[in-house]
Amino acid sequence: MPEYGRGIQNMVDYALTLTDRNERQRCARTIVAIMGNMFPQLRDVPDFKRKLWDHLAIMADYKLDIDYPFEITKSELLTSKPQPMIYPMKRIRYRHYGFLLETLLKKLKDMPEGEEREALTQMVADQMKRSLFNWNKDAMDDDKVASDVADYTDGKVRLDLEHFRFAPLQGKLPSLHAFPTRQVRRNGKKRS
Length: 192
Fold this sequence. Notes:
With 192 residues, this protein is mainly α. The protein folds into 2 domains: 73 residues, no CATH class; 71 residues, no CATH class. The protein contains 7 helices and 2 strands; from the N terminus they run αααααααββ. Strands 1-2 form a two-stranded antiparallel ribbon. The chain starts with a helix and ends with a strand.
């Protein structure tokens, strides 16, 4: 383990050569104490001592015959690969909106009119606009979002763009006119 260096590895190799079990045990405790002193900032980490003993066993290639104070992690667990995860393949109409927004739009389509539906419509439309902005800043348009909401909900939910207000985008760049310009005088001093 490179984080401990060659010196610790030499100590572990020396411990493997000891024939007296008590001497090997004492040597192993000393090695673990030195390893702990190398990383004092990690002493507050849960199971810190256990990790040190695991590292000692790994560096000794599990050949160090001592009484470990903790159960050592088996080498098979360290080298085994996890089972592959099953990726759910779902058809998404507009990939830039994603599956969760499609699910919310289906729920929105079936909701009765009221305050809850209006609040969900506001949140969904704002998220759709953010997603569209992240996907393609040039194609982002309020009309596009309103059209997609109507398309997803089969026309049951329509955004009246004259009265509907989207939340401001966080990542949107302000216009150039929003920044005050500074003029430089002939003598090099700045003037507001």
